[in-house]
Amino acid sequence: MRTNFQYKDRTSSICYYCGELPQSVDHCPAIAEVDRKGIEYFKKERIPLILISACYECNQILSDHSIHTLSARKLFIKKALLKKYKKILAMPTWEEEELRELSDELRYHVEIGLKAKSAISLRILW
Q1: Are 109 and 88 within 8 A, CB to CB?
Q2: Residues 28-87 pLDDT 10s
Q3: In whole angstroms, what is the distance from residue 21 CA to residue 76 CA?
Q4: Contact 13, 22 (CB under 8 A)
Q5: Which helix (H) or strand (E) segment is 107 a member of?
Q6: Per-residue exposure over 59-87, b if at least 16 CB sit within 10 Å of its own CB, e if not
Q7: How many other β-carbons are positioned within 10 Å of the β-carbon of residue 17?
Q8: Per-residue pLDDT for 1 more than 60?
Q9: Is residue 9 scored above 60 in pLDDT?
């Protein structure tokens, strides 16, 4: 079954959906759906079977959802990331002066949160 999938980009060193390092390969459409409907359905509907570099989180978000285009899959992931990281993304920005007024331990935790917010924002904007 998997030999019928074609690579979108065999040499990609980034997740197609968010720009992170890929740890897995996404099957578009999902293997479970191809197994359920059969390859002939996808040939008849002219839906290509594509392998795409993906990070573990994006691949897990997509799971076996029935989404057949890469653009729709990317949008689905963006919405899921926004929902999953809603609290981190709502974190306020801090001025350097405000951070200096915090205790070392609290500043450390705030800075970690700000780095996480920045990284997640970049993934969503990818």
Answers
A1: no
A2: 999 999 999 999 999 999 999 999 999 999 999 999 899 999 999 999 999 999 999 999
A3: 19
A4: yes
A5: helix 104-125
A6: bebbeeeebbebeebbebbbebbeeebee
A7: 27
A8: no
A9: no
